[in-house]
Design goal:
Rossmann fold; 2 domains
């Protein structure tokens, strides 16, 4: 399959608005932010040069919908450009193997919270005392750790994971949150995703981090979430399963009071759909950490969780993105 890389140069203040636009059309909402980094004299970590512009990128499959997606993004950038400087949308075609590697140039070592350090598999890092290293190669799956929704989840996992907590990562992407939970003490962890590519990437990253004994990865979702399928269509998903010897397709899980902790970095409409299933899957007193929620949809998600009987505990926000913590009473 061929892909299109869509990119634009913007000022730092426009990152949140442009990222939201790119996430609406990009594969699995994936967005890469190429920021001007200043290296640290003490190691491979970095700081951001806020005076220089950034480049935002996303990738879409080159199919019958590609032109519509490109035009929609261009229209959104034009509207945003009426309020602040926005560069011209750049479009570049690439093949699948190049697409899978394109993230690497924009993916640095990054510390999230107090202990998590995301280290791309192709870079080296010397761990400091107390560090929880997440060695990651997202490949073609969403979940680089650079997106605000993922970072918010990591901050909350650092606060709420308890030793031996039975944990579910719903919509695992690259596996970053499942691996983070396991390294913070959760055991066992079930990582599920409707995307067969995400399942493959998670399994590879789980092995890379040495937590195979703690994490089980399955293609699927909770209840009706398994019927949502893959956004590229069932034919595409079937081809990916066949290529990776996964003929079974997504599994519909309906656990009853099984998990101490669920983390779900997924779309707001899926949170709304699955709210009663999330509540049911938690043990009494169990915690639900959710993100992927744009602030405009927060009211809908909160209402669905309230209707399902979940009690709000904490709320974090970064830019336009919101993360929530709820408890099953």
């Amino acid at each position: 399959m061929s892909w299109l890389e869509l990119s634009v140069e913007i000022e730092q203040e426009a990152i949140e608005s442009v990222t939201e636009l790119f996430a609406q059309v990009g594969y699995n909402q994936g967005v890469a932010i190429d920021q001007p980094f200043v290296g640290s004299p003490d190691g491979p970590e970095y700081t951001i040069d806020a005076a220089k512009p950034v480049i935002v990128r996303t990738y879409i499959p080159l199919d019958g919908y590609a032109e519509e997606s490109r035009a929609r993004l261009e229209q959104g950038l034009w509207a945003l450009g009426m309020m602040r400087p926005v560069g011209e949308l750049q479009v570049r075609q690439m093949e699948e193997e190049d697409w899978a590697n394109a993230w690497k140039a924009h993916y640095p070592i990054r510390r999230i919270g107090e202990r998590f350090v995301i280290v791309p598999s192709w870079l080296e890092y010397t761990a400091q005392p107390g560090d929880l290293i997440l060695n990651l190669d997202p490949g073609m799956a969403f979940g680089t750790g650079l997106h605000p929704t993922t970072q918010l989840c990591l901050v909350l996992l650092e606060r709420y994971v308890q030793p031996d907590a039975r944990t579910l990562d719903l919509g695992c992407g690259s596996g970053i949150l499942a691996i983070a939970a396991a390294k913070a003490g959760a055991d066992p962890v079930l990582a599920i995703d409707n995307d067969p590519i995400a399942v493959q990437a998670t399994e590879e990253n789980v092995a890379r981090n040495g937590v195979t004994a703690l994490i089980t990865t399955v293609e699927g979702s909770l209840g009706p979430g398994a019927q949502l399928g893959h956004w590229l269509g069932s034919d595409w998903a079937i081809k990916q399963r066949t290529a990776n010897a996964r003929p079974e397709g997504p599994v519909a899980f309906e656990p009853d009071a099984e998990f101490d902790l669920i983390v779900a970095n997924i779309l707001a409409n899926v949170h709304v759909l699955l709210a009663p299933y999330l509540e049911r899957a938690l043990k009494p007193g169990g915690l639900l950490v959710t993100s992927g929620i744009i602030s405009d949809r927060e009211t809908d998600v909160v209402a669905a969780f309230e209707a399902a009987g979940l009690q709000p505990i904490e709320r974090l926000q970064e830019g336009d993105w919101v993360a929530l913590v709820h408890r099953r009473v």
